[in-house]
Amino acid sequence: MKNFKHQTAEAIASAVLAASPDAGLPAEEIEGLLEYPPDPAMGDLAFPCFRLSKILQQAPPKIAAALADNLRDFPLGTVTAVGGYLNFKVNADYLAQQVLTAIEEQGDRYGSSEIGRGKTVVLDYSSPNICKPFHIGHLGTTVIGHSIKLLHEFVGYRCIGINHLGDWGTQFGKQIVAFRRWGDRETVERIGIDELVRLYVKFHEEAEKDPSLEDLARAEFHKLEEGDPDNLALWKWFCDVSLAEYEKTYRQLDIEFDHYTGESFYMDKMGPQINRLREMGLLKLDDGAQIVDLSAWNMPPCIILKRDGSTIYHTRDIAAAVYRKNTYDFDKAIYVTSAQQCLHFAQLKKVLELMGYEWAENIVHVPYGTVSVDGAKLATRTGNVVLLKDLFRLSIEKVREVMDEKNPDLENKDEVAEAVGVGAIVFNYLYNSRIKDINFILDQALSFDGSTGPYAQYTYARTSSILEKAKAAGIEGKGGTLTHPSEEELLKVLSLFPEKVDEALEAYEPSVITRYAIEICTAFNHFYRDCPIVTAEDGSQREYRVRLTRAARTVLGTALHLICMKTPEKI
Ligand code: ARG
Hints:
Layout: H1 2-19, H2 27-33, E1 45-48, H3 50-56, H4 60-70, E2 77-82, E3 85-90, H5 92-106, E4 120-124, H6 137-154, E5 158-162, H7 171-182, H8 185-191, H9 193-209, H10 212-225, H11 229-253, H12 271-279, E6 283-286, E7 289-292, E8 302-305, H13 313-328, E9 332-338, H14 342-354, E10 363-368, E11 371-373, H15 388-406, H16 413-431, E12 438-440, H17 442-446, H18 453-472, H19 485-495, H20 497-507, H21 511-530, H22 539-562
Parallel strand pairs: 4-5, 4-9, 9-10, 11-12
Antiparallel strand pairs: 1-3, 2-3, 6-7, 7-8
The structure holds arginine.
């Protein structure tokens, strides 16, 4: 209803002007004040007159009545004054023609816009740590990040997706020591990250008994930093083994990155930034470490160089931000990480600002809450983690069982089971507002009823199969008009998509789209329940309903793709 809302706001603005030439309230402001009434009996859109009441020094009901009078001939709907509100009911005709035509004309671009045209966004997301498995904690950054990228692309931004791999740091010294002592190449090649994790865990167990191992690890990391060829080769191999596994997960999610530039990429890019900090007098010596004092902003200091002179996570992020600005000239740099890193990014932003980079204000940190699975909190290092690949596998297996039973002859069963199994987890995850802590219950996520991925994908498949039947019956899906309230309900929901896209973008909140996908499914399934489509008796009704089905399929498909969901034609 973006268009309806927009035009309604314009009409109200002129009515206000007509009522009182110097009271002028701009249409954009009016648009912001328009509300969707909770009860549809009140109309489709409501304008509260309280704001105007202050400007005009009149009681809201009086203003509402005067404006309703002025808007008697509003062509897109009917206007009534109820108390201090102006209620608008959109004309069925308008919905029936304008909205549907817009969807038909724009296809999978319906809902998009050009607001990002000419602007660049750099998105830093997923970014797992090498030698560590991809556990369920990474699901958030990966799918929220990718969805935010897709949303920005949808409205015209040039987007650069960066996987800022955790591929540098003292932990690699430990990994090298552990591998040389207790590991062998063949086992790592065969088992992959799990074996690297086992070695890493073993290092910590052994180091408890023999603390000198820690010194050894530091020395190996130091050699790595100095470019020791053996250590470098080993480190590179750890990266390759890890990446090969991450890639599998990314493929299941249909996610590709533009760059895999991890922390190591910034090794030679930190020097100039450290110098700049020093020259600007921002560095302070604190217990042997070089820090930026942020106490004036109520934050702990940002450590730039540790006591032993080595750089850390923050140092690399400073270099990375500057590199990205210089390379991509971004209008916005978005970082998606768990909420535990809020302080890290607040410090980063402040330090960049103190360094005189005025673009620091364009850094946006998008945090998300923690995930537990069936009540169990996740912990690394102890080895007690829920791996994403295991969760995906379990989910795919369960879907496969249901399919074998319900639809044994389905083609591409493996592909569909993967799309539904993985999709169930993604959908369930993206259904909640991102900052909420989530307890994930697999059986709930997999249910075919309720607000789930399988339900949404199933509804999509239903629209596809209706269209196939229509085609076979020679129904083209042309012309016709609205005849049933459930058709109207569906169209109203479809008309909301452009606003939902705006809302999701504004709040960096894919859940707006996930929930909206469910609204489409509910409205479509009501329509399906109430209205015969291919079997409708009246020819023009048949045509119109097939049109509606096609439109619902288009919008649902686009919405699902924006939240990293695949849409099989048959389930
Ligand atoms: N590797 C980090 C982690 O797993 C996330 C990196 C986020 N990006 C960044 N530029 N700091 O916690």
